[in-house]
Amino acid sequence: MTTSPSTTDSDFAFDPKWGIESPSTTMFDFNYTGGRDQLLRLYDKGTRRQWIGSDRLDWSTEVNLADPVGMPDEIMPIFGTPWWDDMDEARRGELRRHVEAWRFSQFMHGEQGALICTAKIVQTVPDIDSKFYAATQVIDEARHVEVYSRYLHEKVQLVYPLNRYLKALLDDVISDSRWDMTYLGMQVLIEGLALAAFGVIRNNAQNPLAKALNAYVMQDEARHVMFGRLALRDYYPQLSEAERAEREDFCIEACYLMRDRFLGEEVWERLELPPEIGVYVENSETLREFRNFLFMRIVPILRDIGLWGPKLRQAFTDMGVIGWADADIDAEMASDEKAAEDLDEQRDIRMAHVQEVADSAEEAEVLRA
User: Fold this and answer.
1) Per-residue confidence (pLDDT) for residue 1, from 0 to 100
2) Which of 81, 217, 226, 328 is the most exposed place for a label (fewest CB within 10 A)?
């Protein structure tokens, strides 16, 4: 294993607590037999697909601190620039470690936000079937925080604080008293964007632990996004045009916040790189393509749930992501499920081989005795 670079976790001290005022109404639903079939099936699936992070993931996998995820260097926003070319391999390794620590830290913080939001949904949503499913998601999100935290603290050995753009969005989502805004902000927008970001790592990472971690989290998140779609698709047709317009305005603001969330400004500052790097990264083709890809699930889901007014469509056109409107979101979700299942199959084959080798060695020892 590569030795740790000079920067340590203690160099990134930040306030470990953050409180948000969140007025809300706790709702009981005594209609225990009136649940929607699709949501009840999703609840059943959620209970059956629970997993244990310490068992499903191989934590004995070594992680190279100079390249903790094994992403292609070509994906690095400053790859091929004079700044990159002037770095020696040690400096590039430090940059890779910080970029992945920053990226996975935002995943971890976002998953805690999802944990809090889903617990709030259990409390505030008026329908018992939604409470059932949200309860399974609470466990999912706790597990996600756990595995990302373990990967960061044990493997990468570096943690970044909550990004200011993600913090602003979480503040808006959690502080709003309306139950559907919690769904919209977390289940559709934040989770939808996270799925795309996780997918980039799952599809490109060479480190098997980082790859599997993101694939397994994605399998859960696909259900979570479906949960938001089902609940809001039933609810939004009941709202007035003015109420839907208000929610579309929120989506526009949130999408710009999420788009800017991936600029990585903190990394360039921490590594004392020239400030003009931030300007270059914001306008780079690599980041433009990545941010475009992030909206591949959000755009069709908003259309599906009935938030598709002219102002929102124009915002997506201005962002250059309107082309995702016709994406087959169900096919993408099915692909997320299958990718995790394929990794499980590969893991089982490896474990069976390891056991076979161990049994053969034990048998040979017995014969020698």
Assistant:
1) 41
2) 328
